[in-house]
Amino acid sequence: MHQDLYKRSVDNCERQEIRRQRLLQEQKIKRLEQQDELRELREVHKPCGNRRRYKQQTFQEIYGSDLAPQLSEWMREKPECLDDWLLVPCPKGQRCLVVSSRGKTRMFSKAGRFRMSFKSYLPGGGASVKHGSGFSILDCIYNTDNDTFYVLDVLWYGKQCFLDCEAQFRFFWLKSKFDELDDEAEERDYVGDNIKKISLINSCDIANNVLTAQMLQMYPLWPENRPELDGFLFYHKDASYTCGPTPLVCWLFPFMVQDVLEMSVNSSYEPPPNYSSPWLYMDEFDKDLARKRHKRQTKQMNCSVDTDTMNSFSTEMGEGVEGEELRTKEDTATEQFFVGEKDCDSLERIMSAERLLEMEGISEM
């Protein structure tokens, strides 16, 4: 009874459908105006001898501030035409960007911070014979339980830019390329030599009612429920990749799908005890994340003040042997973490903390 009242309170000028149509039109005009030649990626940073300094640079500092993960919104209302959308199941894990180039593959957090370096079968990723050179940027979810990267989307692949390509084409391209990578990877083992597994998540065209119903009713979605399903992402077929939040990519927890989209899901996806309606839950979820974000920022500010005080004390102690030893220990500890050596506990603690804020304003997915 109260749900209808809640939905009607949304101002028409702010409705997602209106903003979607406007964005689609702008993206279509941009694609038509583009020239045929490929744009070259602006790599701001050139690797230098100081490895630690390179590791501490953010993704945006290295590859350009105009590149960032595509962030979704809550799907607060049922789209006028669901057939225009693609359904992508999203596993639990940390959202990240994976970059392969110059024989290495690097993981950057959603905020752009370097997390680890490894080898992969991606072009330029260091583990492929066929694709020894190249450059790629993939939008992924990293699951620590499986030690696997699950690919959601693509920004660049093999030196080709896909930012202005439609979502339907991007997913088709990824499928064809990962079929090739899987064939090559089967000839080798992922164990050893720091090779990480990168797996493509299969999307589903909602226009295909049979396949869509099968995906929503399947439980668990992955064998042995590893990884666990976190929620569903909805991509508009005609949308370009937007670096930042966009209403052309939306998110719902599985237990919300029935209420918002009027589509049946498996009964195993039970709502939390405090769930009454999806729209109230969305608002409470956002408020809770805002409180956690504020608490984290306050803690970081306090830590920053403590660090400044310690640095000031260390400077006052002079430039003697003790001060030099203190700085050396700090540099060594930082180097060990950023180089991505086997400090799994530290990495998992950081990922767990970032996961608490993974969906800030729900535009983090």
TrEMBL record:
Its main location: cytoplasm. Residues 71-254 form the Snurportin-1 m3G cap-binding domain. InterPro entries: Snurportin-1, Snurportin1_C. Functions as an U snRNP-specific nuclear import adapter. Involved in the trimethylguanosine (m3G)-cap-dependent nuclear import of U snRNPs. Binds specifically to the terminal m3G-cap U snRNAs. The keyword RNA-binding applies. Pfam families: SPN1_m3Gcap_bd. Belongs to the snurportin family. Keywords: Coiled coil, Cytoplasm, Nucleus, RNA-binding, Transport. This is Snurportin-1. It comes from the Eukaryota. It is found in: Cytoplasm; Nucleus. Residues 15-44 form a coiled coil.
